[in-house]
Design a protein that fits this description.
3-stranded antiparallel sheet, 8 helices, about 55% helix
Length: about 325
């Protein structure tokens, strides 16, 4: 009974091993390469697959999802002979499991080395300033080269990103000083613009104020002149309406002379030529009152008493 049991146990173990090797379950978004006697036979897709036990062999299982691989910083020399360290991140996806297995031994390492060499070629044609400001351009150029080179490997490069660009420490200090100087310059320019705008606004305000003040003064002067002109017209019309004689006008003229001479600035004033005639008429009237009975020439009258000349009688207008 012993040898029979041993044989049965061996057969059961062989059957279990054969079943395990025959039934292959492939996960979703994965693929497996099957070789028969060391030669590629087929590619197993997701799901339940049957292979020949002890003849077919699963060589490699490949993940078909998009992969993200960060690469360590790489020293790169720019066109102006400055060394910068650049970190890159590659987003790729395996599209052909057979090509990824047999066309390249290690596609991750191959992509890394291709990225480094391509990046050095691209950065070598740029200066530091352009390198720091042209990330999109570098990403596009790097992706184009990698996608073309990795296509025959069954790999598609979806995106390439520059995670960091680190110039030397001395260059960073110089850049910080330059940026600080630029910021100070912009701040000074903005402050000067603000002062200039403020002065312009103040000048405009003063100008408008002077214009309004001048317009107000001109308007006031015009109103005063108009008022004086109206007063003169009123007086003139009153004089003509009252038909004042020469004696009254002479008397009023004499009364206005002291007012003309008033004021500290009136040190010289001109006496018109008509003043003599007015004073003669006024003097004759005064002498007529002071010498009663006279003949009007200062010699006296007939002695009968004071004689006052009657004012001439006005001729009343007739209405026909």
């Amino acid at each position: 009974m012993g040898p029979i049991i041993i044989v049965l146990v061996v057969l059961v173990v062989l059957v279990v091993i054969a079943l395990v090797q025959t039934i292959q379950v492939i996960q979703q978004a994965s693929a497996a390469i099957v070789e028969r006697f060391g030669r590629y036979t087929r590619t197993l897709n997701a799901g339940l697959n049957i292979v020949v036990p002890f003849i077919d062999r699963i060589r490699n299982r490949i993940d078909l999802r998009e992969q993200v691989v960060p690469f360590p910083p790489q020293p790169v020399i720019t066109q102006d002979n400055l060394v910068v360290n650049i970190d890159t991140v590659i987003y790729y996806q395996v599209t052909d499991a057979r090509a990824a297995t047999y066309e390249v031994s290690n596609y991750i390492q191959a992509i890394e080395q291709l990225t480094v060499t391509t990046l050095r070629n691209i950065i070598g044609g740029m200066d530091l300033e352009r390198t720091l400001t042209s990330r999109e351009e570098i990403n596009a150029a790097l992706r184009g080269v990698l996608d073309e080179a990795t296509g025959k490997w069954g790999i598609r490069v979806n995106r390439v990103e520059l995670k960091a660009i680190e110039p030397p420490t001395s260059i960073q200090d110089s850049m910080e000083k330059q940026m600080r100087a630029d910021r100070d310059k912009r701040a000074a320019i903005l402050q000067a613009e603000g002062v200039r705008q403020s002065e312009i606004l103040q000048a405009e305000g003063a100008k408008q104020s002077e214009i309004l003040r001048a317009e107000g003064d001109a308007r006031a002067a015009a109103l005063r002149a108009e008022g004086e002109a109206q007063a003169i017209r009123t007086v003139f019309e009153a004089i003509h309406a009252g038909d004042a004689d020469q004696k009254l006008l002479s008397y009023q003229y004499v009364q206005m002379l002291p007012k003309i001479a008033e004021g500290d600035s009136n040190k010289l004033w001109i006496v018109p030529s008509e003043l003599g005639d007015a004073l003669k008429g006024l003097g004759g009237n005064i002498g007529r009152f002071t010498n009663p009975g006279g003949n009007g020439d200062g010699t006296g009258g007939n002695g009968d008493g004071p004689s006052f000349d009657k004012p001439p009688t006005r001729e009343q207008p007739r209405i026909e």
